[in-house]
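Hi X.,

You mentioned you wanted examples for the new student's onboarding notes, showing what a folding record looks like when two proteins sit in one file. Here is a clean example. The first protein comes first, with its sequence line followed by its structure tokens.
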Amino acid sequence: MRNFDRAPLYRASVGFDRMADLIDRVLSADVATPSYPPYNIEKTGENTYRISIAVAGFTADELNVEMRDGAVIVSARKPEDEAERQFLHRGIATRAFERKFTLAEHIRVEAASHLDGMLHIDLVREIPEALKPRQIEISKGAAAPRIDA
């Protein structure tokens, strides 16, 4: 039931193949999405965003933030404990994880910081000059020049 025919979309549009792939990715996502580690996504300005991930128990050296295929991939791995530790209660999860955040076009990672058990990833949307609105001057009285092939 989840297979859709995208042929009509490709016939009537140009350049929307990435959007169709995004729709497929959303529809094929597992129902049980991982909830570890918890995170927030906030809008900090008109064109700026921040992803904050709770990474208690991890040092900055054990965390990895990478941009790949239009996504930010955050992963962490604790080195194996050489000495056997005996916990009476273990409530702080320090298991390895990988979290992927798909970014919209023209959004790039500006910075990443680790402070007080939180990993903050600052994002900025940079719209290229070609896509920004621009005023087109209208000439008065003269016809636009014609180009003959």
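Then the second protein repeats the pattern, sequence line and then tokens:
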Amino acid sequence: MIAIVIGATGATGKDLVQMLLSDSDFSEVNIFVRREVDITSPKLRTHIVDFNEVDSWKDELKGDVLFSMMGTTRSQAGGKKNQWVVDYDYQYNVAKAAAENGVEAIELMSSIGANEKSVFFYSKMKGELEKALAKLRFKKVVITRPPSLIRKNSDRVGEKVSLSVLKVFNKLGMLKKLAPMPTEQVARAMINTAKDNISGIRIIESDQIRVLSSAI
């Protein structure tokens, strides 16, 4: 299989790429990034691109499955408008081009609580992206909705505090569906669903991610 990855420099994206490169079922891994990355492999093809100009490189989006892993925070992006560009526009534009090029499957990393009718900006944005991608010409659409992620060596203070609070509730048997999950677990589940023969549209919630991440 030939994999296409956007969002390869994020925490989960990095884990995903390393797993794809070590997986014998994938003969080639194409990553589309803004700048050079410190990864080497005979299977790796690195494309330095401008995500604001997808039309100028869309012909390179060819393969068997697109892994869409992009995402940012409002503070990192500098506001809701810029966050929408990264989380929605970039991913939708790349997915549309890939579908038009004949890529048959897409694996989207979304978020728990994604809902286009939500009153919360982030959940609404993720829900609207899910809905839009489902309408594209993919034979297989897998939407993975992880809970809070445990990132290796994270320096986000807010994230650390949130994870600590959730872990306390989890020990008390509460909010199990929201239990923090390592980025590696999400990446493994997405690769496993990419390799199965199930077509159509699927939504993978947190409890399913835990099962699928251990599937062979």
